[in-house]
Please model this.
Amino acid sequence: MNAFLRTCLLLIPLFFWATPAPGEPGAVIRVVRVNAAITPTVADFIATELNRANDNADKAFLLEVDTPGGLDIAMRDIIKAMLASRIPVIVYVYPAGARAASAGALIALAADFVVMAPGTNIGAAHPVAVGPGGQQDTTMMDKVLADAVAYARSLAEQRGRNVDWAERIVRESISTSASEALQIKVIDLIASDEKELIAGLSGRRYLRQGQALMLDIADSELLFVEMSWRQKILATISNPNVAYMLLMLGIMGIFFEISQPGVVFPGALGAIALLLALFAFQTLPINYAGVLLILLAIVLFILEVKIVSYGMLSIGGLVSMTLGSLMLIESSEPYLQISRTIIAATTAVFGGFFLLVVFFVVRTQKTRFISGAEGMVGERGQAVTAIHEEGRVFVHGEYWNAYSKQPVGKDQAVIVVRMEGHLRMEVAPWPASEPTTYTVPQQSAADSRHDVTTDKEEDS
Model:
């Protein structure tokens, strides 16, 4: 065994001795800040960190919120983790000017302690339909409302808070300031910062499994944690504006790959963007009529390439895309809506891109061939012999076997109608009566021999 391996073996015990055990308790308050809507990604982040705080036996878990609300399923995941926590959970509406609205208010009700910074508010938890179309019938909404009321009252009773207020924020969608919330026993403290929060809550009592415990956080240190890069990416693409742009980028990339096969990169990029958009749509109130209108717009743009509509299909595609974008995500909550400015800008860029692609494709399709047998169609020539069923013409500097459905006199100007193989063409009298502007050169003996060989090859 060499010296390097012996040194490593000697250092391993020192490493384990110097590294603290993962579950070793410490005077730490784990702090998570949420300054966004409550989405499944945010819920996963909060629940993960809360479980980690329990595993490490931290003194407490501090959730600082400034949120307009969020999805019911994400909110309930957070509340379940809070109610199952062995360590105390503190919800802090922070900083000044922040709010804990809708789902944020119910999350606060589930905490052991609720603290608000001056100038903040809490409440407005009336449920909003966020299913396809953003609307539900009256009976279903009554059921949803009754369930939300019962849920809010249950949380308030469990934590010893104002039950009537909990019901009113759901039924009447009221919002309460920090000072009023303290007076009606909705929150426990008003604090300007974390230091004042620790000083104000230290020594207070809370219940855990029916047993009264004291909150001992006087000498605790704050441990701020942030989302991992994966969670940050997922949280970003869950934004309605980002999800919409990913959808449009995905469609654009795939369309470009279809119109220009073999480029590969646009198609790969489009597929990735489309998959990310579909992931984000799982957390958003998608109106599938909007999705179908956007797909219809793509079909109309593709048909514009195949059918001459003088731009009518493209105009229909732009109208369909605009309506589909406006209908794609429908909700009364502003944080769940797509910005109208982004819709206008994206539709304009997307429509311009498609119109440019269609223009180049149509121009390419209408371009005449300038080489090979196809390039002879439409060329002007001169009859070397009289032509009816068979004859000879001089076109584009060469002699050709030809036939015509109309009689053509010798030396008469002709136009090439179509090619039959590579040695014979159909001609017709030139529409104009003016003579040709060139003179047919005298056939040499070599040309005559070539013509005979050509005729024999054709006969064979």
